[in-house]
Design brief:
Layout lengths: L1 H16 L16 E5 L1 E6 L2 E10 L2 E2 L3 H8 L13 E5 L3 E11 L2 H6 L4 E8 L6 E7 L4 E8 L5 E9 L10
Parallel strand pairs: 1-8
Antiparallel strand pairs: 1-5, 2-3, 3-4, 3-6, 6-7, 8-9, 9-10
Length: 173
């Protein structure tokens, strides 16, 4: 009975985790200048892609391309059409949580294949009216995610890096 209770509680927590409340990328009542921040995606096949996105802005959970893609493609089986978002951000000192993660069209594929993930915080001051993109690379020996200014391709803030494998274990997927 104790084992069944633990399994049931774990399932409930997992299901509730999908009910996140997303906040706007611009704080309420912000009237200052703005910049643009894009997510990005590297597509490998109709059922596999690496997503590079922002998950939090100054501690606020924001909607991102990985979540929007999963929502838009739910029930489509082994086919996934990535949705890539952009958002306005304040042109002032900012702290972003950025993520690079492998995503598959169907959850069963993630369970049976390699999923890489790297994430961390980056701080920088976006310049007004400039555009930035979250970029990255995922692999067995090196993974990284960073933010770069679109025109110059200069990395702003720091790169979040994992030297060695960034593959997730079965229970982390």
């Amino acid at each position: 009975m104790k084992k069944i209770t633990v399994i049931f509680c774990s399932l409930c927590l997992w299901l509730m985790g999908g009910c996140a409340t997303y906040q706007p990328s611009i704080p309420k009542n912000y009237t200052g200048q703005r910049a643009i921040l894009h997510d990005s995606v590297k597509i490998y096949s109709p059922n596999k892609a690496d997503f590079f996105h922002v998950s939090h802005i100054d501690g606020r959970t924001v909607v991102n391309s990985r979540i929007q893609t999963r929502t838009a493609n739910q029930g489509r089986g082994m086919i996934m059409d990535p949705v890539v978002l952009q958002r306005e951000i304040p042109a002032q000192p900012i702290k972003l949580t950025i993520v690079g993660r492998t995503e598959y069209a169907a959850p069963i594929l993630a369970l049976t294949r390699t999923v890489y993930e790297v994430k961390g915080d980056v701080e920088f001051t976006p310049e007004p009216n400039k555009a930035y993109t979250v970029r990255g690379t995922l692999g067995d020996s090196y993974s990284a995610v960073w933010v770069e200014e679109d025109i110059s391709k200069v990395v702003v803030g720091k790169k979040v890096e994992v030297k060695g494998s960034a593959a997730l274990g079965f229970w982390e997927k």
